[in-house]
Structures are given as C-alpha cells and as structure tokens.
Write a structure and sequence with these properties.
This protein is mainly alpha-helical. The chain contains eight helices and two strands, in the order H-H-H-H-H-H-H-H-E-E. Strand 1 and strand 2 form a beta hairpin.
C-alpha cells in the first residue's frame, strides 16, 4: 500500500513537471515569434523610410516602393516555404510606419499594400482571405500607433482587398468579403466608415388617436380593455 501511494505521488510530480515544461516551452516560442515580428516591422520600416528619403516622397515613388517591398516579402516566404501569414501583417505595418516617417500619404499606400498582398498571395497559392485579413490588421494597427486616420485607412484597406480579390476569382471574392466583415466588426470605430451605412428611419411618437379606417367609424378605448365602436 505504501509503495503504491509513493508511485502515484511520484507520477503526479512528473505530470506537474511535464505541464511546466510545456508551458515554458510555449512561452519561449511565443517570445521568439514576437521578436521575429518586431524585427520584420523594423526592417521594413527602415528600408521604406530610408529609400524614400533618398529618392523623394512623391506618391508614385511611394507606390512603386510599396509594390517592391511586398513582392520581396512574398518571394522570401516562397524561398523559406512558410511564414506568409506572419510576415503579411508586419510587412504592412512596417510599410505604413516607414511612409509616415517621411510624411508620405499613408492612406494611399495602405490601399496599394493590401492590393499587392492579395495579388501576391494568389500567385503563390496561399490563402488569399487570411493574408488579406493579416495585412489589413497590420495597416490598421500601424495607423493607430502613428496617430493617423484609422477610419480612412480601414475603409481604403477593406475596399482594396475586395477589389483585388475580385480580379482573382469569385471564390476569393466571397472569402475576402467574409473576413473583411470580421475586420470591421473588430474595429468598432470604423464600422460605419468601412461599410455602407444602413438607411436611417426617423422614429415617430405613437399617436394616441387611432388612424382612420375610412369607414366613418371611430374606435375609442374604454376601461377594462374593451373597445366600443361608435358612429
């Protein structure tokens, strides 16, 4: 009896150690992912801002650079074989911040970035809707951090994603529309800006006098919940 109890106790300790090991391992992995994400943002941001400083900040140059950066990120994921979901958000975030650093048009670049990401995802056979979602998340997150016009960026990003998906296939279009609705739902302050506003109907105060039926008779409420019809 004593031996059995001891073994059970030892097993419990071992299970506890296993749980702790998994917990620590996951935390370490997540910290590593966070560091990688931060590095991607920093790399893209510095590359974009430094390039624009050297060449100028014209809108055409910003758009050309955005296309090139997104293309480079997609090619990198092709060579590595994975990581597009991870890089999409952070590349988008870095682009917005880099353009903002030199006073560029963040809204216009946001639209170009999402179009490039969606097109690139389709070219390598990735999940277009997920890449679109991650990219828009990055655009919105970066815009919030730099104090930009979140509503306008969200609107342009959602419209750009839907437009780009429409050039790929009907299936891609439906999938992207669904995830874009999720994006807008998740950003309550841009809900009305990103989607068509529902038609507003003015609420009128109910009249105490029932509408005329056109029969020349009038219904008047009386006590005890009954209705008496009078000429």
């Amino acid at each position: 009896m004593d031996t059995t109890e001891k073994k059970v106790g030892e097993s419990s300790v071992d299970i506890g150690k296993a749980g702790t090991a998994v917990k620590e391992g996951i935390i370490g992995s997540l910290k590593g992912i966070s560091e990688i994400e931060a590095e991607i943002v920093t790399l893209v941001r510095s590359t974009v801002s430094n390039t624009l400083k050297a060449t100028g900040t014209a809108a055409e140059e910003s758009l050309a650079l955005t296309k090139d950066v997104v293309k480079g990120a997609i090619q990198a994921t092709e060579e590595v074989g994975t990581g597009l979901m991870l890089s999409a958000k952070n590349v988008a975030k870095g682009v917005v911040m880099g353009v903002s650093d030199v006073g560029g048009d963040v809204v216009t670049v946001a639209g170009q970035t999402i179009r490039g990401a969606v097109k690139g995802a389709a070219e390598i056979g990735a999940d277009v809707s997920l890449v679109a979602r991650r990219t828009v998340d990055g655009l919105i997150e970066a815009t919030k951090e730099i104090g930009g016009n979140v509503e306008e960026v969200a609107k342009v990003a959602v419209e750009g994603a839907v437009e780009a998906a429409g050039h790929i296939s009907n299936t891609a279009l439906r999938a992207v529309k669904e995830v874009m609705l999720g994006v807008v739902e998740g950003v309550k302050d841009v809900l009305q800006a990103a989607l068509p506003k529902p038609r507003e109907t003015g609420a009128s105060t109910p009249s105490t006098t029932p509408p005329s039926t056109g029969s020349g008779l009038e219904e008047r409420p009386i006590r005890k919940g009954r209705t008496r019809t009078e000429p």
